[in-house]
Amino acid sequence: MDYILAALVGVFVALGVYLLLSRAVIRMLIGMVVLGNGVNLLIFTAGRVTREVAPIVPEGLETPAGAFANPLPQALILTAIVIGFSMFAFLLVLAYRAYQSLDADDTDTMRLAEPENAPQPPLSY
Amino acid sequence: MNETATLVADWLIVLPVVLALVGAAALLMVRRANRVPVIGALLFLLGIIACEIGLLIRVVEEGPLSMTMGKWLPPFGISFTVDLFSAAFALAASVVTLVVVVCAEAGRDADDGRDAFHAMVLLLLAGVTGAFLTGDLFNLYVWFEVMLIASFGLIVLGGNPLQIDGALKYGFLNFLATTLFLLALGLLYGLLGTLNMADIMRVAPGANPAALTGIAALLLLAFGMKAAAFPVNAWLPAAYHTPAPAVSALFAGLLTKVGAYALLRSLVMLLPASRDLLEPVLALLAVATLVVAPLGAIAETNLRRAVGFVVIGGIGAILSGLSLASATGIAGAGIYIFQAILSMTALYLTVGLIEARTGAMDTRQMGGLYEASAPLSILFFVLVLAAAGVPPFLGFWPKLLLLQAGVAGSAEGWVGGVLVVALIVNAILTLIAGTRLWSHIFWRNASDALPLARSGRRLRLATSAVGVLVLAIVALGLWPNPLIEGGQRAAADLLAPSRYLEAVGLAEVEQ
Questions:
Q1: In a domain? residue A47
Q2: Is B450 inside any structural domain?
Q3: For B138, which of A32, A76, A112 is closest by C-beta distance?
Q4: How many CB pairs under 8 A join A and B?
Q5: Which of B103, B274, B379, B505 has a CA positioned 20 to 30 A from the CA of residue B208?
Q6: Which residues form a coiled coil (chain A) (predicted)?
Q7: What is the enclosing helix (H) or strand (E) of B68?
Q8: Is B2 within a domain?
Q9: Residue A26 in domain
C-alpha cells in the first residue's frame, strides 16, 4: 500500500510541477492545488499506513493498549489542507482581478511591475 | 506525567504572539472607528515590545527558555523555545513595526481608515514573531502561512493594477516556497518521526545521511525562495515596489529575514552534518547573491526596485555566514539579520519619504532634493553607508565578523577566501549603487525633475520617526560591544545546543 501511495505522490508532484511551468495563470493555480494535494498525501504516507485501531486511551490506562494508528499525520494534513485551501482561494480571486484589470491570463503579457523595455540606467554619476 | 502547571513567568514566551493575534482581531472589529485602529495598534505594539524586552533580559540572564502548551510534553506537544537570536530578532521586528505604523500615517487619508491596514500589520507581526519564537518545525510552517496571508492582504491594499501584477508573482512564488517547505517537512517526519526541533537534533545523527541531506537541500530551496537568495530572487524586485511605501518597508525588514533565520535554524542547528555536505553549494549561492544583487541595483532606475536589490545583497552576506559555520561566521550572520531588520526597513521608509516629496518613482525624474530637505539626504546617506558596511555604522560590524571568519576559514579550503573577496566586492558595488542613487536624487541639478511637493506636518512626523530609527542604528554602530558579545554567545548556543536541549527538557533522555 505504501508503495502505491508513494508512486501516487510522485505522479501528483510531477503533474503539479508540469502545470506550474505553464504561462497561463489558471493552469498554474490548478498546478498549485495538485502539488499541494501531493504533499498532503506524502505526509499521510510518511506517517506509515497501518490497519490498526484508533488511538484512544482505554479507561484506567495511561497509554493505548497494543498497536494503534498514528494520529499525528492526520492533524498535520488537516492543518495543511485548511491553509492550502485559503491560500488557493486568495490566489483564485487575485487571478480573477488580474484578468479584469490587466486583461491578461498569460504571465508573459503581465509587464506592468516590470516594464519590458526598461530604461537605460542614467550614465552620469 | 508532569503534573505541574506552566509557570506564569513562562507565559512571557508566548505573550508577544498572543498580544499580536488578539490585537489583530480587536482592530479588525473596530476598523470603522476613526482614529481607534492607529492608537490601538500603537498600544498593542508597545505592549509587545515591553514583553519582548522582558523576554530578552530573561534569555540573557538564564539562557534559552522553553514552554509547552497543553501539557503535551516534548517531543509530542508544540513547544515555544527562545534563544538569544530569536529574542533579539523578535524585538527588532516589533520595534520596526512600531516605526512603520507611525510612518504609514503620512501616506494615509481619512478614507483609507477602513481597510484594516493595522489589523493586517499586527497579524503579519504575529506570524513573524511566532516564526522566531517557535521550537517546532510544523509550527514554523503555520507561522510562515500566517505571515504570508497577512502579507497578501497588505500587498493588494489599494488594488491598483500595478499592485495586482506584483501581488500575483509574489503570491505564487511564496506559496510555492511554503509548499516545498511542507514537502520537506513530510519527508523529515517520515524519516525521523518527529518535528520538534530539539528532538530532531537528538535523532538526526542516527538517520540516513544521504536522505537527510536531500531534505536539507529541499529546505535550502524553500527558505532560499523566502529569503530571495540569488537564483530564486526574481519575485522580490518584481513585487516590493508595488504596494504603499510603508508596506514595502515592513516586507523588506521582516519577510526575507524570517527566511534567512529559518535557514540559520534548520541548517546550522538542526542538520549540521548536511550543512557540511552542502557547504560548497551555500558558498556559491552566497557569492552569486553578493555579486549579482548590487549590479542589479546599479542598473535600475526605479528607486524602490534598486533598493530591493540592496536588500537581496544583504541576504548574500547572511548566506556567506551560513557557509562559514564557525562561531564567528554564525555570529556575523545573526548580527547581520538583526541589523538588516532595522536598516532595510529604515531605507525603504526613507525611500517612501523621498517618493512623497518628489512625486516620482523613477530616479531620472528626481533631482535637487538636497536643497529642499537636507535631513532626508542625511538619512538616506547614512542608510546607504550602513547597508554597504562602512564603519562606524551598524552594518560594518557583522561584515567584519564575516570577513574574520572567512580569513580564518581560508586555511581549510577555497570557501573562505572566495567569500572574503565576494564580501568586499559586494561592499564596493553597494557603495557605488547607493552613492549614485544619492547623487541623482539629492545632488543633481535636474531641469527635467518633477516639482517638489510641500512638506506637511505628517511628513515631518514620519521623517522624525525614521530619524529615531536611524539614530538607533548609528548608536548601535558606535557601541557594538553588547551586540557582538550577544551574537557570539548565541552562535555558540546554536553550534553546541546543549543549553537549548536542556531548556526543552530533552537533555537527560540521551540515547
A1: yes
A2: yes
A3: A76
A4: 112
A5: B505
A6: none
A7: strand B65-68
A8: no
A9: yes
3-class SS at B136?
strand
Q: Does the residue A112 lie in any domain?
A: no
In-domain check, residue A98: yes
Residues B330-368 have pLDDT tens digits of 999 999 999 999 999 999 999 999 988 888 888 888 877
Cell 545523527 belongs to B205
Domain count, chain B: 1
**Residue A34 in contact with partner chain B when CB distance is under 8 A:** no
Question: Is residue B1 a part of any domain in this protein?
Answer: no
User: Domain range holding A14?
Assistant: 2-52+70-104
Residue B510 lies in a domain: no
Question: Which of A13, A94, A116 is the best mutation test for B, with the most CBs of B within 10 A?
Answer: A94
Comparing CA positions, the residue from B226, B228, B116, B136 lying closest to residue B185 is B136
The count of structural domains within chain A is: 1
Using alpha carbons only, give the angle B17, B20, B24 rounded to the nearest 5 degrees.
Answer: 140
The Cα–Cα gap between B477 and B373 comes to 25
Q: For residues A94 and B155, is the Cβ–Cβ distance under 8 A?
A: no
**Testing the interface with A: which of B173, B183, B298 to mutate, by most A Cβ within 10 A?**
B183
A123 to chain B, minimum CA–CA distance in Å? 10
ipTM field: 0.93
State pLDDT tens for residues A4-32: 999 999 999 999 999 999 999 999 999 99
Q: Are B246 and B305 in contact (CB under 8 A)?
A: no
CB contact under 8 A, B138 and A28: no
Residues in chain B: 511
- Per-residue pLDDT band at B448 (split at 50, 70, 90): low
End-to-end CA distance of chain A: 67
CA atoms within 13 Å, Cβ hemisphere of B495: 18
Parent domain of B40: 8-504
Residue with cell 473596530: B30
